[in-house]
From TrEMBL, chain A:
Matches recorded under PANTHER family: BLR4373 PROTEIN (PTHR35342:SF1), TRICARBOXYLIC TRANSPORT PROTEIN (PTHR35342)
Domain DUF112 intervals: 20-443
Record bears the keyword Membrane: yes
Transmembrane segments: 20-39, 46-69, 75-95, 107-135, 147-163, 170-187, 193-218, 259-281, 326-347, 359-387, 393-411, 418-434, 474-494
Keyword terms, alphabetized: Membrane, Transmembrane, Transmembrane helix
Protein's recorded name: Putative tricarboxylic transport membrane protein
Pfam families, sorted: TctA
UniProtKB/TrEMBL annotation, chain B:
CDD domains assigned: PBP2_Bug_TTT
Species name: Roseicyclus mahoneyensis
UniProt keyword Plastid, yes or no: no
Protein name, as recorded: Tripartite-type tricarboxylate transporter receptor subunit TctC
Pfam families according to UniProt: TctC
Taxonomic classification: Bacteria, Pseudomonadati, Pseudomonadota, Alphaproteobacteria, Rhodobacterales
Length: 504, 323
């Protein structure tokens, strides 16, 4: 009960005219920042941090959190309409959002994304409100072995999917892992895989560079090739009645993904070092695995849009938890928010909840309000985004190209990345023609750099003994599940072979 | 319109003014773009906190006409950040918050081709001491207990710190050899992650800076045992120093700001003035005190000489580590 009254007073803080105004502005700005390829919540929050000196600290963090929220909603928009991930957190949204758009169902995909984001955010808010202090200790109990086990599970969800060509999936994962290993080794500090001694490789290959290459340039080439002998996708229409129908369909065909994404997103979000990008990719994998029709994934199913979108919103709330309860950022964006709190004279850390209770609860209250505001504003803008899609592809294709290159440059301000984007784009097109799935490579470049150091830290902890992944109470079960998932398809394959033997 | 004109005038006059004293020019040069404020460490660690605090002071007093935009480049024990500065196409708008890996990383990786003497000294904001921390639940409260515990575990005593060859590993290696201990060292990508994993008891001890461990110290989760400073710290009057215990060793992490190689003198003068202003604010002085840092103000020439001596000191320390 005490929590409810704290939450109530927090919401009152968030509903003060100034704060409400900040929420509305923040969400709208965030929506557009998120929709711009290359610019994500990290950039938005970093750029707008200084503006917050004009308002009191509680208003400032509410504003920044609103941007964070808005950006999570916005990332889906360009993923769906243009096929370029608006932010790293929305890469998984392209897997099914883009096919839906190509079928002329962009409005369904956008409505699904908005609703799933809302549910994900709300579920996370409720869990956050009720269990914040308990969950903080859960986050702390995740050491290197636990995080590695979790990463293994994430890979397993991608390998263990029936339907796909498993050797090709594994090859794709390996490709991503190799690309993720380029640059400095965290443990020894030595440079690795610096191809042709090009210094650009020393900085590593950014995840967004690969994602924009594969989904921006690669997708554009693919569409150009496809549309040579095929009519263009049906121009999507947008009416109020259509939107209601879409909402109903989104609920019917996307609730499963939403539920999975909301839960997984939150728990991955509270873990150190993870954040919304791995959360959305993992949720997509799990949703596909648990689905009765896994073959629909990647061809345009609302569940495939709902899972990552619910997850990235849920995870962004989740990653606030270690920030507020422990003073440790759970994602790059919260790291900047944490800096903001120092600026405003607050000491982040275990005592913040007690000493700055009004600030903390005002922020939590604002999560709820921001989430509602983001949903309404996002739905209101959907017709505008749909209108963009009505442009003929001859106009869209150059636009996608420009946005991909500009977005790639905006992220790192390095020309080298642009060349990489172009190379990855062409390579992705070729691989796709050869039927290689590319999502696993994208997953691997995100998770590889988390998995590898934790693997090595774990083995250092155990003096090289791999049983550390099985004997620890949390890591053990996760590792076992992951291994079962990895070997399940192999067993099935053998069984099928045996049956085939019997019949002959 | 007036701004463009002024920039244009400044630029066209720059040649004519080449002989005027630098101080006068410092008033004229202004950043034209957001300043790339590179941090040599991941988010949450000591260097990161300081960079963000500096940024906040600059914002509060509106000291810059373009914002300082923090940019974490923690990879490769800071090599990523050093290369970023070395290769930047815009040295006048690129500055770096450094740690001691500014000295150690170029030593350990000569192939990077980084010569720190080409960098531009800007300001020494202070030096950060190291403290040995254990978790409260270990029951250890004194150095003697720590040594006894670590020895009894035959090399399985686990300590966490930043990357191999970086500050934490140097301090731990020295302590281990001074007390004849064998420990397992787990490298992390930043002090923030190290602090978290001590609080979560994933590692048994760390040598975090006071600022990194502060939150968990105040909540009582971690216990300080030993300071690596020259004298006892005002914030930790009961914690003995390694010197008191008879070992001639102290170690600090520098918190300095440097400019990219090739920065123009005008820009360097601008940043030197800027960071002097920041250094002298009440906020920065209070921050030094609350985070138990020591002041070590130096001008540009003194900084260059300091770099030389630090490179030699670290060369010797690293040789000891490897030997």
């Amino acid at each position: 009960m005490e929590i409810l009254s704290l939450l109530g007073s927090g919401m009152l803080v968030a509903l003060q005219p100034l704060n409400l105004l900040l929420i509305l502005i923040g969400v709208t700005v965030g929506l557009f920042i998120g929709a711009m390829p290359g610019l994500g919540s990290v950039n938005g929050v970093a750029i707008l941090l200084p503006i917050t000196f004009l308002v009191p600290p509680s208003g400032a963090i509410i504003f920044l959190a609103a941007i964070y929220y808005g950006a999570m909603y916005g990332g889906a928009i360009s993923s769906i309409t243009l096929g370029i991930p608006g932010a790293s957190t929305a890469v998984a949204t392209t897997f099914d959002g883009r096919p839906l758009a190509r079928q002329g169902r962009a409005s369904l995909a956008l409505v699904t994304a908005a609703l799933a984001s809302f549910v994900g955010g709300t579920v996370a808010n409720v869990i956050f409100t009720a269990f914040a202090p308990v969950l903080a200790s859960v986050a702390l109990s995740f050491g290197p072995p636990e995080i590695f086990a979790l990463m293994l599970l994430a890979f397993a969800t991608f390998v263990g999917l029936g339907g796909d060509d498993i050797p090709k999936t594994i090859l794709s994962i390996c490709l991503g892992l190799v690309l993720g290993a380029v640059g400095f080794d965290q443990i020894s500090g030595a440079p690795r895989l610096v191809l042709f001694d090009i210094t650009g490789f020393l900085q590593g290959i950014g995840f967004l560079v690969l994602a924009i290459g594969v989904y921006g340039i690669g997708e554009m080439l693919w569409t150009i090739e496809q549309s040579r002998d095929e009519a263009e996708s049906t121009p999507p229409k947008m009416t109020a009645r259509g939107m209601v129908a879409d909402a109903a369909e989104a609920t019917r065909r996307g609730w499963r993904g939403t539920a999975i994404g909301s839960c997984i997103g939150f728990f991955v979000g509270i873990l150190p070092a993870a954040g919304a990008t791995p959360a959305s990719l993992m949720s997509y994998g799990v949703a596909k695995m648990m689905s009765r029709n896994p073959q629909d994934y990647g061809r345009g199913t609302p569940d495939g849009v709902a899972a990552p979108e619910a997850a990235n919103n849920s995870a962004s709330t989740g990653s606030m938890l270690p920030m507020l309860t422990l003073g440790i950022p759970g994602s790059p964006t919260t790291a900047i928010l944490l800096g903001g709190m120092v600026i405003w004279g607050l000491t982040p850390g275990p005592r913040l909840f007690i000493e700055e209770s009004e600030f903390v609860w005002g922020l939590i209250g604002s999560f709820y309000i921001s989430n509602i505001a983001a949903l309404i504003i996002n739905l209101a803008f959907i017709p505008v985004f749909i209108w963009m899609l009505r442009m003929p592809f001859t106009i869209l294709a150059p636009m996608i190209f420009v946005l991909s290159v500009a977005g790639g440059y905006a992220a790192t301000r390095d020309m080298f990345d642009i060349w990489l984007i172009l190379i990855f784009g062409i390579a992705a097109f070729v691989l796709r023609r050869l039927d290689y799935p590319l999502a696993p490579a994208v997953l691997a470049i995100v998770l590889g750099p988390i998995a590898e150091p934790t693997l090595r830290q774990s083995l250092l902890l155990s003096q090289g003994d791999p049983s550390i992944f099985f004997t620890r109470p949390v890591a053990g079960p996760i590792t076992v599940i992951a291994l079962i998932l990895i070997f399940l398809p192999l067993v099935k394959l053998l069984q099928r072979g045996r049956k085939a033997d019997k019949t002959t | 319109m007036s701004i463009t004109k002024r920039v244009f005038l400044t630029m066209s006059c720059a040649g004519l003014l080449a002989t005027t004293p630098m101080a006068a020019l410092a008033q004229d040069w202004q950043p034209r773009r957001p300043i790339d404020f590179v941090i040599m460490a991941g988010p949450g660690g000591g260097a990161d906190q300081i960079a963000r605090f500096i940024q906040s002071v600059a914002e509060r007093y509106d000291l810059t006409n373009r914002p300082l935009v923090p940019n974490n480049q923690g990879g490769g024990s800071g090599a990523e950040a050093l290369l970023h500065l070395n290769n930047t196409s815009d040295p006048d708008h690129t500055i770096l918050v450094t740690l001691n890996s500014f000295f150690t990383t170029p030593l350990r990786q000569a192939n990077l081709g980084i010569d720190i003497q080409t960098f531009t000294p800007i300001a020494m904001m202070g030096v950060d001491p190291f403290i040995l921390w254990v978790h409260r639940d270990s029951g250890i409260t004194t150095m003697d207990q720590f040594v006894e515990q670590a020895r009894s575990m035959n090399g399985e005593y686990v300590m966490g710190g930043t990357g191999t060859g970086q500050e934490d590993s140097i301090v731990i290696a020295f302590m281990a050899s001074a007390y004849d201990l064998e420990v397992t060292y787990i490298p992390y990508d930043g002090g923030g992650a190290v602090a978290r994993d001590l609080a979560g008891q994933q590692v048994m001890a760390t040598v975090n800076n006071p600022s990194e461990a502060k939150g968990f110290f105040e909540s009582g989760d971690v216990v300080p045992l030993l300071a690596f400073s020259d004298e006892r710290m005002p914030g930790f009057p009961d914690v003995p120093t390694l010197r008191e215990l008879g070992h001639d060793f102290s170690y600090y992490n520098q918190r300095a700001v440097v400019g990219a190689p090739g920065m123009s003198d005008e820009a360097a003068a601008y940043y030197q003035t800027l960071f002097t202003q920041i250094y002298e604010t009440e906020e920065w002085q209070a921050y030094l005190e609350s985070e138990s840092m020591s002041p070590l103000w130096m001008d540009a020439e003194e900084q260059r000489r300091y770099w030389e001596t630090q490179v030699e000191t670290h060369r010797a320390l690293l040789a000891q580590l490897d030997g």
